[in-house]
Every structure is written in structure tokens, then in C-alpha cells.
Amino acid sequence: MTRATDATHRTDLSGLVKAYDVRGVVPDQWDETTAELFGAAFVQVTGADAIVTGHDMRPSSPGLARAFARGATAQGADVTEIGLCSTDQLYYASGSLGLPGAMFTASHNPAQYNGIKLCRAGAEPVGQDTGLVEIRTLVEGWTDNGAPATADRTGVVTTRDTLADYATYLHSLVDLSAIRPLKVVVDAGNGMGGHTVPTVLAGLPLDIVPMHFELDGTFPNHEANPLDPANIVDLQARVRAEGADIGLAFDGDADRCFVVDEHGDPVSPSAVTALVASRELARHPGATVIHNLITSRAVAEVIREAGGTPVRTRVGHSFIKREMARAGAVFGGEHSAHYYFRDFWNADTGMLAALHVLAALGTQSTPLSDLTSSFERYAASGEINSAVGDPSSRTAAVRAAWTDRPDVTLDDLDGLTVSGTDWWFNVRPSNTEPLLRLNVEAPTESAMRALRDEVLATIRA
User: Fold this and answer.
1) Are 171 and 229 in contact, with CB atoms under 8 Å apart?
2) pLDDT of residue 6
3) How many angstroms from the chain centroid is the CA of residue 144?
4) For position 433, what pLDDT does the model report?
5) Quick check: 82 pLDDT over 60?
């Protein structure tokens, strides 16, 4: 924490409170004293008389969660502690119990980080536009003297184990009764997948090959961020060595799931989005499905082919969840492997997406690569970051280079998207760094590379 230089000496938490959550280094940026203030502020802003909390396996997580509970109970709210859990398990508890929730995790960040993901009852997200600014303002004002006592009672803390109920609920949403035996390599990355996978996948005809299931918030094997290709190399090699049917990798708080096929080749999150969308549309004919603007063009194509309505959104879970609720969408997917389900309170759950993939694979005799090939229709660059002095001026340069070209459309839904008949690219500024992020998709690898290089030349000129 840092102090402002004005006469009030107000604590500045701008480096700790992000757009969608609280996240920073412990104890440099925050500690249990701060967590207690957040608990008090959360209760005041939500007006809750009861909340639910959970935490991941990081060394600092249990203490922060207990401190948050102290702050909440001092404001008169009862607290149900579900203890060790994945983030989507916390969302399950919030949804099924009808309580606002707080999950203590820093997801895939290094061990010295921790954070809080907050939601209202029914797993409705709390972000900058939905209460997080007010919570931050209260905590900043209370840092010197503590939270004022406003309740005539102290809340009660109880504990509850929700893991089995969470697993049962997931299985109620996906029919796995007829799947064939499968060999599945799972890399939990020493994160919460090591806690949830054994229960969720128990009783299925699956030969599970576990990797890094030991809960260890110091991440001794590799970062728990499967979005970085370096962190799934071991999983890919193990799938090949075992002759497995599929590989699954979870991030630190196990709310995202990444898939590799029987060859050890990554299955893009866009292909997983398309696969799950087709399955959900089979259950809910004609429904709406959300996808962000840098998922593959194949996603919208598959949604239409399955009789659904695709809706394109900005990048970021708050936009996805807001649009899910507005449109009554049955499902939503992002390029970052966040998957959202109407039947899961519009919240994201990588575990439910994994069950859909296992159900699809297990009810056909062909391998996963065959199943996903119809969803992998284009060549994609992945996200390419460029450090630039002025992101706005470089975006303007890209716009100028493409504005007058024939058969090209430009839109500004999120950054700048330029689209042709069978290709597109998007340039978006980072929210926190002087970077431009480029994503390119085209029909062939050679066409994608040529387009990528042309746009990068303009960005980096």
C-alpha cells in the first residue's frame, strides 16, 4: 500500500484493486489487516446478512480468508467457510446457497501474489462498475482507524464442505453415463485441480494419469498458467508417452481448462468453445451463444450451423457475464479458456467444459483430433504483444493503412478490428502497460503470416 501526499493521508489502493478483482503481493501490497477491512466493506456495500468464503492453496490464503471473515462478522454478517476450493466451486456455493461470495486466489500469478474474487448472490460478479469502487473507497478511508462498528450483533462463522455437492451438480448438467473408457492425463499445476478433479471424475470409466496434483502454492513444477505454451510441454509429452486419449490442464484456481489431443497437440479454446456451443445448442435449440471478438470466426459459423444466434462481445469476463444475462445466452466462451454457462449462474467453469469434451469424445469411437478438426477451420497467430511508446498513435496508423481498402470493414467494439471476406485482425491496447496486442486469423498459415507481418510492420514502425 502507498499513501497519497495530500493532507488527508488517504491510503491509495489503485495498485491493488483491479477492474474485476483485488490482486497484489503479500505482504507488500496487502495483508490480513487489509483483508479484514475488505470483509467489512464487502458486507456494507452488498448489504448482506450472510456470505460464503473459500480459498486456494497459496500459503497466505487461509489467513487472508479468516481475516476477511472477521471483518464481515464484525459488521453483523454470518460467514459460511467452504475452505479449500476452486473458484468455480465458490461460484457454485454462491449460486446454490444464494449468498454473496469471496474467493481468495491470485489464479495463475506467482506465489507471492494473492487476491479476492468477489460476487453477489447467485455468483453475480462484483467489478469496477458493480461495487468494487465503493468497496475500495471504504477500505482506503478505514486504513488508519479501522472499520466503524455498525452492527448490533457479531456474525457467526460456520464451515461447510461443498465439494461433493459441486461434483454432483456438474454431473447433472452433462450426461456421461454412456462414455467409453478413456485414458486422461491431467496436469493440475499444483493448483486446485488437484483438489477437485479426483472427486469430479470419480466413478467414470476413466484411467486418470495425474500430474502435479499435490497442492502447493509455491508452484514448484511450472507456473499454473496453461495459456503459456511453455507450461503445457510436460503435459503434451506425457500424453504421447502414455498413449492417452486426451490431456487436460487447469490453472491455479482451476476455473480455466486447456485441452490437448491424443497427439499432444493443443486444442484451441475457440475449438472447445465451438464444440461445447454445439452441444448446448442441441439441448437448447435456437439459443444465443456469446463469444468474444478474438475467438475464431469458426465459432460464430458453428453456432449458426447448429441453429443458434452468435453474439460478439468485448474481451473480459465482466462483458461476457453482462451480455450472457442481457441476452439470456445458454453459453459463452473466450479465447483465454474461460467458459460460461447459463446453468451455472452465468459463471465460468473450466471443469464443466472439460466434462463436455469428455462426453463428446467418450460417445464416439474416433480420436479427439478427428472430433475437433471440424472446428479448427482457420490459422491463428495467437496474441502478439508489441511495446510501443504511444498505443493510440500506433492504432491510428493501422487504421489509416486499412481505411480505404476495398472489401474491408473496420469496427471499434474493442480496440480496432479489421475484417476481410475470410480473414480478420484485432489490435487492442493493454489496460496496464504500453503494449498493443495483435491477433490475426486467415484461411491458411501462409496467409496468416503475411497479414501478421504486414500489420506488425505498421505497429512497430
Assistant:
1) no
2) 39
3) 34
4) 77
5) yes
Greatest CA separation for the chain: 71
Q: Which of 61, 107, 296, 381 is catalytic?
A: 107
* Domains along the chain with CATH numbers: 2-161 (3.40.120.10), 164-377 (3.40.120.10), 379-459 (3.30.310.50)
Residue 313 backbone phi and psi in degrees, to 5: -130, 175
Active-site residue, 365 included: no
- 207 within 8 A of 270, measured Cβ to Cβ: no
Nearest to 23 by CA among 137, 135, 106, 86: 106
**Amino acid at residue number 349:** T
**CB contact at 8 A, 417 and 297:** no
Query: What CA–CA distance (Å, rounded) separates 291 from 300?
Result: 8
Is there a contact between 182 and 362 (Cβ–Cβ < 8 Å)?
yes
Q: Give the mean pLDDT of the chain.
A: 95
Distance, in Å, from the CA atom of 186 to the CA atom of 272, rounded to the nearest integer, reads 17
pTM of the shown model = 0.94
Q: Reduce the DSSP state of residue 344 to 3 states and report it.
A: helix
What are 130-158's pLDDT values in tens digits?
999 999 999 999 999 999 988 999 999 99
The DSSP bridge partners found for residue 182 are 206
Cα–Cα distance, 254 to 191 (Å, whole number): 7
